[in-house]
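Whether sequence alone determines local backbone shape is best considered at the level of individual chains. When preparing material for the folding task, we compiled for one chain both its residues and its backbone structure tokens. The sequence in question and its structure tokens are set out directly beneath this paragraph.
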Amino acid sequence: SFPTRRSSDLFANTTPGRLLSDPQVRQAIYQATDLQAIAATTYGSAYPVPQSVFDSTTPYFKSESSKLGFNLAGAEKILQADGWTVGAGGIRVKNGQKLVLLAPQENFVAPGVELWQSELLAAGIELQTPIIQASELFGILDNPTKWDLFGSYLTRADPGALRSIILPGYATLPGLAKAVTAGDRSAATQIQALFTEATNTTDTSVTASAYGQLQDELIDQGLAFPLLERVQYAGVSPKVHGFQFTEESFLDAHSIWISS
């Protein structure tokens, strides 16, 4: 078999007034999330556990695994100190508001999300996953009162492709990009500067440093939540030769041949 990988993340809506504008809630989500259990339960014990907003085969990948460890007691402590107390049904409440997050799912619930729901619920966070149609997507993401988390990915051989998700002006989903840093405009400035630094040089050490800082920024600020590495497999007969994926994980059939 020939595997290739892509990253799959959920991005936070930090618009003031939304629950994820609170950085303590975002950090609690990391600690309440058991990524190893999600990977193993969803796809099997040998499935890779995500370590960053990029998957481990992406150029300039940097592991953030030390910041993504499961610690349910730690998550509960963060939320309790932040004023979120356990209420009816185990859902935490603060100032009369329940800790209920909306994570719309396009057409169907993505793999791993239902287990993530149960993990977050153990910490007192309710994650709702309404199904939306493609025709509704732009309208919902353009209205920051309609969602808190949304999953997106892009398959490319260059980490700069992340600009198409999180940078307004580049983004294919502008509502998503604007909401990710709406709660902290300095984060938007820093992310833009790191992309510029990474791409406006021929010095690979500078590029590596900038993309490393970018991955730090997205996790340290709680703006992106890796959920699964996207692994693509192909079963190939021993008679098939020259089979390969492109760097963007698409099938490259130009050199395939079959022996007799």
Residues 1-6 have pLDDT under 50 and may be disordered.
